[in-house]
Request: fold
Amino acid sequence: MTGLRALRRVPAGLTVRRSWPHRDGLAVEATATDGLIVGLLITDDEVRVLASEDPALPALAPALARPGTVLLGHRPGRRAVLREADGSYLKIVRAGRGHRVADGLREAAGRLHGIPGAPLVPAVLDADPAAGWVRLAEIPGPSLHTLLQDAPADAARFCRAVATASTALRAAPVGGLARHDAGDEVDLLHRWIADAEAYSDVRLAEAAQPVTAALRALPEPRWVACHRDLHDKQLVDTPPAPTVGLLDLDTLCSADPALDAANLLAHLHLRTLQGRCGPDTARDCALALHDPGLDPGAVRTWTAAALLRLAAVYTFRPDPLDLPARLAAATTDPVPSTWRIP
Reply:
């Protein structure tokens, strides 16, 4: 069963927002006609509507039973994000996994303490790692994702602050952090491509060969602290400017200095292809993010890898059907000349 055929089995009245590979089939996040988010699990045998319950996330149902709590996102079997009535956020993961979220944020805050220009990370208000939930303080302000579409001039201005915050993050101590190297990225790409090709007619293996070869050819980097999943929805324009809010630090690692910048550049490609960011805005943001201290070759290689990974991820999304192929094609010119400072 291809992913597209599976998504055709989503019940009427539900609109697919996102989907992911799942060991039993396809995990789906959809919205109902009233705007509420609904999780589904599609297998060969059934379409299971999870609604407010998820057997893999036992903390979800009691959290949603509290008045004023709103479900913002749900990846069935893996995680959910909710906004509480008091404005705080609740991140729910599988039982016993909550320590990764809480510890990642606390560790990031500790490592960034005292570094000029460091990003602001959400404070952990409460947590029950065994039950699988963490309550986080709000970081107010629009995300870069919102600015790209609604306030292009502000997006470029904010990206200059992001460049400063990224430099501060790379200055954080890395002792004790797990490493994510080029070999790890190759393995990650292979897993995503295998999933994408198993669920769809998209073929990415050929495009992957030069990308993985370039990754393997990279020299040993200077190991620095990296977010590892840095994209436009993780960055918040927090008052007073130029404060940068940084979300979801459970992927914090030691990696190539080019990794985070490359992931952001790949997402500029993505938003442009989706029509959510104009080409001029993407160029201005890329120029604002430019860091002369990063190796241009490494930036190109890691950007190509991020584009290929996004091509696989978006095989499972209801975006234009040609989006994965266009993302894969962008790997041949991952950092266009117009995005580079002469």
Q: What stands out?
A: The chain has a mean pLDDT of 94. The longest strand covers residues 14-22. The chain is about 40% helix and 20% strand. Residues 3-136 form one domain.
